[in-house]
Write a structure and sequence with these properties.
Three copies of one chain form a homotrimer. By secondary structure, chain A is α/β, with parallel strands linked by helices. Chain A has helices at about 15-30, 60-65, 85-95, 100-110, 120-125, 140-150; strands at about 5-10, 35-40, 115-120, 140, 155. The interface between A and B is medium-sized, with 29 and 31 residues.
């Protein structure tokens, strides 16, 4: 176990929880920690490209991905979203307060070398293909997560 | 602290979060780790028997348990459930992708010796009785959880 | 790392999740552990004073805080809240079962020396001012949380 390694499972695809996860990840990386984020289930939506990508999927997978938000700009809040109005309000306040946007936090995490892993089993279940996710994302399963977590001293499930 | 011990608090009773918890638990057990899952609040519903069990409860407890899902087959998704349609869709895709069902994951966890503890304080609050839960489940409180967590190197709250 | 230190990030402002967090915090403190709770996003509402406090805010911040619950007595459940009816029912059963209320758990945590930190960045985003939060609460950012977590052996995200 190393005191300079952290892992986060990002299960949630809500804007507020994604912000919390990336603020922690960037904070830890800025302090010199090695950080691994493991994206699973709804959390995969955070990594999706905003543009539609042509893919081969069966009907149910197509339905699922069609109904889910493509990327950080389309995420909603876990509470008080009111069809996107709440998310819009929060982004506006964040701008006024000079807080980084989720898009900026993701870019900063990548620049700081935060490792982002997409859970392949969840990708199969949600019908999300590799080419739909941000460049630089790795792909692995639960065994890989456990290996990383065994080395870290802080492991969170968001 | 041992690097071969993990604990999970399963607070949520959503199908998707339950799947995530049991995939981690099974993965860790398969790698030789000792795993303890501590079920509390809505998470207790995951352990309920599908059949109705006759019990002595007062009115409010009866109301609560009547409104909550009995067992893994009746759980909904935390997002996009649409009255059960989302859960049905996800189960269908999981079958197509040869991913184990939650019922199979629970059985596998039990076979692998994953320790499942139901939080007795939550059981009192939710009105859930011992005989309503799966055989093989243990019963304990927060002190017991903390004792287990102190021995583990990965502790998650799902 | 010390085996007698725990941290909790309290992200959620739901009554049930707040109860879980404070039951763990009080349990650990009772066993002699040093406990730090870090309140962020919706979790800040748990620490709000029930009385309205006069503050200087701009329009959006005023909207946000006006729509969010002021303090533990006004929180709802994450599931089956039914406009507050579910929360009322749960509180009633808790009373019958002689379980401490959230207000009592917070007071007990303060008496036991549990350190409560409000995340200053979230306060800016949610428009919550220092004078609106309980006396005795500290104020800090993510770096402070990471410093505390590095010393603890159990770190949860609720």
């Amino acid at each position: 176990m190393r005191t300079d390694k952290k892992t986060l499972i990002v299960f949630s695809g809500d804007l507020d929880r994604a912000l919390a996860a990336f603020i922690i990840a960037n904070g830890a990386a800025a302090m010199g920690d090695e950080v691994t984020m493991f994206f699973t289930f709804w959390g995969l939506n955070i990594l999706r490209k905003a543009k539609k990508v042509k893919t081969q999927k069966d009907f149910l997978q197509r339905m699922f991905t069609w109904m889910m938000p493509r990327g950080p700009s389309r995420l909603g809040l876990s509470r008080m979203n009111f069809g996107g109005l709440g998310a819009m309000m929060m982004k506006k306040v964040m701008k006024q307060q000079h807080v980084m946007t989720l898009e900026e936090l993701i870019a900063s995490a990548q620049e700081q070398g935060v490792k982002m892993i997409a859970c392949t089993m969840s990708m199969d279940v949600m019908g999300i293909k590799k080419e739909e996710l941000l460049d630089g994302v790795d792909f692995a399963g639960v065994a890989s997560y456990l290996g990383e977590a065994d080395e870290a001293n802080v492991n969170l499930f968001v």
